Amino acid sequence: MKEKEIVPTRPIELIEKHIYSIRGHKVLLDIDLANLYEVETKVLIQAVKRNIDRFPDDFMFQLSREEFENLRSQIVTSNRGGRRYLPYAFTEQGVAMLSSVLRSERAIAVNIEIMRTFVKLREMVSTQKKLAARLEELEQKYDEQFKVVFDVLRQLLEPPQKQHRQIGFIHKD
Q1: Domains defined for the chain, CATH in brackets
Q2: Shortest CA distance to 19 belongs to which of 93, 82, 90, 107?
Q3: For residues 58 and 89, what is the distance between their CA atoms, to the nearest angstrom?
Q4: What is the pLDDT of residues 31-82, one digit of tens each?
């Protein structure tokens, strides 16, 4: 019997944009997962709450008010249409557990893509650490004349800093 081919539903880059670092975990928020699964957020949360024993704190947690405000300011969302509850964040293990709670073909396909995205992110972090270690080795081996080159390479290895641009008119006195 031939295995059914699962066509990716979302490119990895799209999923990657919705992964945040909260409490030292890489997580996806309930609203983003609901959008990926093409279900309402309340339906996703209801399914989770019906199976809450499958979601310990290291699989899923609810954001605090402060975490939510910090996140909202980072991703520039409005207060309009607000939420009645603070969002839930799902770690990689929590997303994997969602596949046992949400059993549609779409949920399975989306979970596969999310797992691939987490693997890709881990590989990228590992590669970056290896490059940094190798750069350190080379820097110790060569003298001061290459210091400028090493400084530039080190800057390139650092993750880009998000810049918040002020909008509006600035009056100079």
Answers
A1: 12-123 (3.10.260)
A2: 90
A3: 10
A4: 988 888 888 899 899 999 999 999 999 999 999 999 988 887 776 554 545 6
Helix (H) or strand (E) holding 21: strand 19-22
- Helix axis angle for 30-37 and 105-141, nearest 10°, is 120
For residues 95 and 28, the answer to whether their CB atoms sit within 8 Å is yes
Question: Tokens 């909260």 correspond to what residue?
Answer: 22
Contact 89, 20 (CB under 8 A): yes
Identify which of 173, 139, 167 has the alpha carbon closest to the alpha carbon of residue 153: 139
Average pLDDT, the chain: 76
| Phi, psi angle pair for 163, to nearest 5° | -110, 130
Q: How far is CA 88 from CA 13, 47, 59, 161, in A?
A: 22, 13, 10, 26
